[in-house]
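Quarterly update from the structural biology core.
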Amino acid sequence: MKKKLLTGIFASVLVLGACGSNEGSEEGGSGSGETIEWRFGHLADENHIWHQTALKFEELVEANSDGQMEITIYPNNSLGGETDTINSIQAGTADMVISGETLQNWAPNAALMAVPYAFRDIDHVKSVVEGEIGEQIKQEISDEAGLTALYYHTRAPRNLTSNEPITSPDDLSGFSMRVPNVPLFLDVWQAAGAAPQVMDFNEVFTGLQQGVIDGQENPVDLIQSGGLAEVQDYVNRTEHVYSWIYILVGNEQYNALSDDLKQVVQDAAAEAQTFGDELYEAEIAEVEQELMDAGMEFVDVDQDAFREAMTPAVESSLSPEQLELYEQILAVE
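Predicted structure, tokenized:
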């Protein structure tokens, strides 16, 4: 009798467990009473602007969907690295990610989101992302990577970190450095004289600590959130990339929503966009000061020399279509 009772309970648990987010997604929040659950993975830590904005997005979606949607956020690459999370979304085991130029591995024109020395400043970035070029890149990401862009963050410029000052490409001989999985980044840093290698961001701290690499390049907010002040002494102001990064959801997950829930998501994304922009303005200067307080020294570099070293590699690495888009970006006022 006891065995039959336990078997019945176990079967009931399995049935209840089967009535989860996937069925709710298929019905598109049409009033079935089931909750649509989205898993949102990203690489930043809990104090980062991206995470704080993601929490705002989560709050707005859950509050305005009358309990029909639930978003769980996984910072610190706890769902896996950026590429892993994108693959998981495509496989249906994750739903949202924060990604930028890495998307070129699916959508080639996403490479233009972070071309060295293509963007003059943050205003130039905004003009591109909110204009026709940005719309073209978003559409390609949707078509080729199966991801719908909901909102975006502008990023502080990427700078090179090291344990010795680097002021020109002449200082890069024998310098081993991490770059993300972006072929163009490999090309331009090789052209500048460094020895770049692809590595997930969650491996960078240990790589620097163990001497596997000598440095890396990232915006100051990721330098801070990655704790790199503990293993690097200098931030060399190469400012070689101004860029943006998208918050994305799988096309299938988004398209499974009812029209009402799609509107909830879009409204939340618009509000999160404004919230994130305000955080950016307030926090980037503070981040630089905190890195200095932690012992990092900021070094001015010969940016013209870096630009001159990298530009031929940029132009030779781009396809004819990408090169045309690159020239359009340079011409945007």
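The first strand starts at residue 36 and ends at 41.
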